[in-house]
Each structure stands twice: as C-alpha cells, then as structure tokens.
Specification:
This protein has about 170 residues and is of the alpha+beta class. It has a six-stranded antiparallel beta sheet. Helix 3 packs antiparallel against helix 4.
C-alpha cells in the first residue's frame, strides 16, 4: 500500500484549507497553483497563489519544498534522519515610494511573523519603461523544516497570511 510522504500530507492539508478559504468562506480568490516534480534534482515543489476577495493589489504565494535528501530519508526510513519540508511565503506588491513603503513593509512583517524567519524584499521593473513603480517580491523564509507535527498550526499560519495581505494592501 502507498504511504504518502510528509510532503504529500502537508501539501494536501495546506491545499484543503486554502481552498476552504476560497470556496466556503469566500475570503480569498485562488489565482494559480503549481505542483511540480523537478527531475533534474529529484525534488518536489508545491505553490498556491491567492489574493483577498476585492483586493487584488497584493498576491500571496505559499511554497512547500521537499529535497531529494528529505524524500529519500523518509522513504528509505533512515534511522538518524530528520526528514521534512521547507516553507516559503511570498507576497507580490507594486510600490511607488520605495524608501517609505519598503520600510513600512519590513516593520509590519516583523510585527506579524515570529523571529525565526528571514524576510527579504526584491524590487524589479521592466527595462525601457519609466519606473514609476516597482514590483516588490517580499519573501518570508522559515528557518526550520516542517513535518506532519505542524499540520495543526496551518489555520494559525493562514490567519497570519491573511493578516499580512490586509496590512500590505494598506501600505
């Protein structure tokens, strides 16, 4: 019988709760979903993107990643291994006043997310067009792997994602 991996169990748990926010609660609109097997490095990636209903200025993307090492350690039941997945959260937002808005974003995210995250902001624009605004990709990387023990924390995690979307829409 097939025994699902940590990645599969987390993916289904996250996906189900995000789809509930879209279909049942109508708080968000899902805009994209990716589920990939990267054969060049034998890794798994899952990503789901969404915006708040009636506030599509900021997009959230939840990314779940499992490496070959983690997948193999789990499937082969290696005794000293600690398999799990990495969780990355991205937000995409247009900014005009880079200095002020990026500083406000940094302060807001540091107030919402726990201390063991790494937050970066990457700005980009289309060359050849006047840069009156920049796309800001705000990335929140969690410094530890997660596993099925964290499934019960998904609702609280999603509450923080929604809170971040509201705050970012107001900046």
């Amino acid at each position: 019988m097939y025994d699902p991996t940590i990645f599969e169990n987390l993916k289904v748990a996250i996906e189900n709760q995000v789809y509930d926010l879209d279909n049942l609660e109508r708080i968000i609109d899902i805009t994209n979903r990716d589920d990939r097997m990267d054969f060049s490095v034998m890794a798994r990636d899952f990503a789901i993107e969404f915006t708040l209903v009636d506030h599509d200025n900021v997009t959230a993307e939840i990314v779940l990643k499992a490496s070959l090492e983690d997948l193999a350690a789990e499937i082969l039941e290696k005794p000293d291994a600690n398999p799990g997945c990495f969780l990355i959260l991205r937000f995409y937002k247009q900014v005009q006043n880079v200095t002020e808005q990026c500083k406000n974003i940094e302060l807001a995210l540091n107030g919402i997310w726990e201390e063991d995250v790494y937050i970066t902001q990457t700005l980009s624009f289309v060359y050849g067009h006047e840069a009156s605004s920049y796309m800001n990709m705000i990335e929140v990387v969690f410094n530890h792997k997660i596993n099925e023990d964290h499934i019960s924390e998904i609702p609280e995690f999603l509450d923080h994602v929604l809170e971040t979307l509201v705050v970012l829409n107001d900046i």
